[in-house]
Amino acid sequence: MRVPFTKMQGAGNDFIVLDETRQRYHLNPAQYRWLADRHFGVGADQILTVRPAPSPAVDFEYVIHNADGGEVENCGNGARCFVRYVHDAGLTPKRCVRVATRSGVLTLQLQDDGRVTVDMGAPVFEAERVPFEPTGLTPQPEGDWLRWPLDVPGVAAPVSVAVLSMGNPHAVLRVDDVDAAPVADWGPRIEGHARFPRRVNVGFMQVLDRGHARLRVYERGAGETLACGTGACAAVVAGIRLGWLDERVDVALRGGVLTIEWPGLREGLAAHVRMTGPAEPVFTGVVDVPDLH
Ligand SMILES: N[C@H](CCC[C@H](N)C(=O)O)C(=O)O
Question: Which value does ipTM take for this structure?
Fold first, then answer.
């Protein structure tokens, strides 16, 4: 099947954007995996699909598939690329766009300097809504929150993780040096941990000062990416609640810098997280997607 696409990236997290506002391609997980494959397909961390608004309350539907072909609830870097795409493609004259995802509605604002600010909604802390299964673990209180001593197979001592959702699940670890962090070793062991029924995105955060952090993320369904927007949001929210960070933080990831703001300790935990960062088109193309099952 011949499918036009636009390749985009947000802080090095890269995407294939498919426009289904005029026709549906009805791709299956094997075909999404093929598209994302960096040797046999186009190559990307995620595939983002633009669909018509499902209700008058939003402008578009925003659908996300990981490189492993699975559909997921949210993608922060992708949201920035989404609004850049729909504006540049002339699908909307608006510079502020509301989109429906599987996990809720996001508001996306194109800034004059080309960056994009996304209202990512409120973080979710209830374990059962992440979802996370803490039964039998003794929480470790810190700041106004807690961490969990996760028993990671093949790792001698329990690993302290903060657990929360940005619509998608996140486990956040604090490390002294992201460059030395065991991302490739611990990432998959935690991503597939039995206490995360829907698996989890794993963030490794180094706190530089109360307004600056470095972060690497081993993403659910994609492996380590150069940046993870929801991961940056989750890491900053965790750092604020645990007493390590102030409410506005510049997060340096391997592919770029994201600014995350969350006034949750001042305005209440239901305060929304705001993320600002880049969104760039890279190239357009047409690809013949094979029949795969
Ligand atoms: N791997 C994530 C989806 C993409 C998130 C990331 N690319 C972002 O920018 O938020 C998950 O399975 O929940």
Answer: 0.97
Can you tell me the mean pLDDT for 147-169?
A: 97
Tens-place pLDDT, residues 202-234: 999 999 999 999 999 999 999 999 999 999 999
Of 215, 230, 152, 142, the closest CA to residue 178 belongs to: 215
pTM of the model: 0.98
- Mean local confidence (pLDDT), 182-188: 98
| Closest-lying ligand 1 atom to the alpha carbon of residue 168 | 13
**Contact predicate 292/10, CB 8 Å:** no
Which residues are near ligand 1 (CB < 6 Å)?
Answer: 13, 45-46, 66, 72, 75-78, 168, 201, 219-222, 225, 228-230
Please identify every residue annotated as catalytic: 75, 228
Task: Characterize 204-221 residue by residue with b for buried, 16 or more Cβ atoms within 10 angstroms of its Cβ, and e for exposed.
Answer: bbbbeeeeebbbbbbbbb
What the chain holds in terms of domains, given with CATH numbers, is 2-121+279-288 (3.10.310.10), 127-271 (3.10.310.10)
